[in-house]
Design brief:
Oligomer: single chain
Radius of gyration: 16 Å
Bound molecules: inosinic acid, magnesium ion
CATH class: Alpha Beta
Order of helices and strands: EEHEHEEEHEEEE
Helix content: 10-25%
CATH topology: Rossmann fold
Distance between the termini: 17 Å
Number of domains: 1
Number of strands: 10
Strand content: 35-45%
Length: 180
């Protein structure tokens, strides 16, 4: 079993890249069908979602799609702080547009709920939420989720864009923490 150490924590291989890729391919295929005839604006929530966003956006090949980025931070170490800091804001005119939010992982749901609120205030025609990963047991609030790649247990993970104290984003596979 592949293992990595980041700072004080040890992680083991959890979701290999091949599995991630095939899940993203399925999500993109569904979106290409569901959004036919529309011109969606994909909105990637930085930092964690950059790999997922790249992987999915290049497969949205049959649509007249655009992509933009916002930067939020809520995690500190291995716990969500519950407080969202906005580091890069939303400058696009969203009036009458279809917006598809791309999130790496939904944990408490606070980030997605906060993002939906901000987008809603800009009068889009429609909002869809896509997340690569979901920790159903960690949800603290009910959130709208339209596309969910993989449901996982309530363990801390890194890789494929997700970090532990800013490290581990460059791992191609997803690893989970080994509880000691
Ligand atoms: P939420 O606001 O609690 O739903 O947390 C969402 C954000 O926290 C995600 O966008 C991630 O960036 C980060 N996050 C949640 N769980 C993990 C994890 O297991 N590893 C790394 N980052 C995580
Ligand atoms: Mg994120």
């Amino acid at each position: 079993m592949k293992k990595v150490t980041i700072n004080d924590l040890e992680f083991e291989l959890f979701i290999p890249y091949e599995k991630i890729r095939s899940i993203v391919e399925e999500m993109a295929e569904r979106m290409n069908k569901d959004f036919e005839g529309k011109s969606p604006l994909f909105l990637c929530i930085l930092n964690g979602s950059f790999m997922f966003a790249t992987e999915i956006f290049k497969r949205i090949s049959s649509l007249d799609a655009e992509i933009s980025f916002i930067k939020l931070a809520s995690y500190s170490g291995t716990k969500t702080s519950g407080e969202i800091k906005q580091l890069i804001g939303l400058n696009e005119d969203l009036t009458g547009r279809m917006v598809v939010v791309l999130e790496d992982i939904v944990d408490s749901g606070i980030t997605v709920a906060n993002t939906i609120e901000q987008i809603q205030a800009k009068n889009p025609s429609e909002i869809k939420i896509a997340t690569l990963l979901l920790k159903p047991d960690a949800l603290k609030i009910k959130v709208q989720l339209d596309y969910v790649g993989i449901e996982i247990p309530n363990d801390f993970i890194v890789g494929y864009g997700l970090d532990y104290d800013r490290k581990g984003r460059n791992l191609i596979d997803i690893y989970k923490v080994i509880e000691k």
